[in-house]
Specification:
alpha+beta, SHC Adaptor Protein, 1 helix, about 20% helix, Gas vesicle protein
Amino acid sequence: MANARLTAQDAALSAARHVRDLTGHEPEGVTSIARTEEGWRVGVEVVETHRIPDSTDILAVYRVQVDAAGDLISYDRDDRYYRGRAGKE
């Protein structure tokens, strides 16, 4: 796949897989995606801590950079928040 252009969907799937493999948390969804010179930058949301009620779950967004083949360039946790909280506080 190194010579093929990675689609946005494939980049998102690749980024989500990298987050799952590195953190052990199952991705909830993709929050953002943008093409870059190196490949793609993807925001992946995960539940870091499950709580009861689930409205108190702690979620995080990881920013992942993948290259044109879907290989990991970088990742970092960008934000943590309670489920249902809008924006950074």
